[in-house]
Amino acid sequence: MNKKEDLIEMNNEEKTDLTTTLQSDRSLDSGPFYHGTKADLKLGDLLEPGYSSNYGEQQKANYVYLTATLDAAIWGAELAVGDEPGRIYRVEPIGTIEDDPNLTDKKFPGNPTRSYRTRQPLRVVGEVLDWEGHSPEELQKMRDQLDELKRLGIEAINE
């Protein structure tokens, strides 16, 4: 083989290893998937990494986040930065997804919130209109916990 063929072969092996790892970790989920935000999106819109995060220090997001639970999407909609009302969209990943290390094995055992992230776009395929937010007390408790993490210098994993 020449150098080019060697590189193609190595790349194919890495893709196979990554897919196998994701499948053996049960990171892949059949969905449906949701994304909570305060953005006003339309059917067919693409959510892509590279924009300011809706959370924490609002750094450039290297990933787009999604979840297979409505409750996690509700938290996302309620806690996103902005004055607009929270919204929850049904989304479909365009590429591969991986466990969100902010809510999975890096911080908690397993993936109880079924939360994921991807470097590829998510396509908006619908909006969930009939959802109920958390109580004001629950929301304040979560905000207090996030403020404490910020005070301690703990930011979301974005790498």
UniProtKB/TrEMBL annotation:
Record has Transferase as a keyword: yes
Matching Gene3D superfamilies: Rifampin ADP-ribosyltransferase domain (3.20.170.40)
GO molecular function: transferase activity
Residues covered by the Rifampin ADP-ribosyltransferase domain: 33-131
Compositionally biased residues, Basic and acidic residues: 1-17
Keywords (A to Z) from UniProt: Transferase
Residue ranges of the region described as Disordered: 1-31, 99-119
Any Pfam family the entry gives: Arr-ms
Entry-linked InterPro entries: Arr_sf, Rifampin_Arr
Name listed for the protein in its UniProt record: Rifampin adp-ribosyl transferase
Source organism: hydrocarbon metagenome
